[in-house]
């Protein structure tokens, strides 16, 4: 299983989000490969923009 985390600001958030997401999945009995998206968003406005998020998801989507 792969999990893509899309942070609003990659600079510091990556160090908080990755271990938190890994722990959540560990508590669920899963061990996914967690990837934090490199710096793609430039603030809250972009993070809340559905079109931008949809484009990122479409780009990184991997079908089985």
Question: Can you give a write-up of this model?
Answer:
With 64 residues, this protein is of the alpha+beta class. The protein has one domain. It has helices at residues 10-27, 44-47, 50-60; strands at residues 2-5, 33-36. A two-stranded parallel ribbon has the order 1-2. The longest helix has 18 residues, at 10-27. The chain is globular. The model has no long low-confidence stretch (mean pLDDT 89).
User: What is the element string, with H for helices and E for strands?
Assistant: EHEHH
Please state the structural category: alpha+beta
Shape: globular
What level of helicity do the residues show? 40-55%
List keywords for this structure.
52% helix; two-stranded parallel sheet; alpha+beta; 64 residues; single chain
Ordered list of secondary-structure elements with their pairings:
Blueprint: E1 2-5, H1 10-27, E2 33-36, H2 44-47, H3 50-60
Parallel strand pairs: 1-2
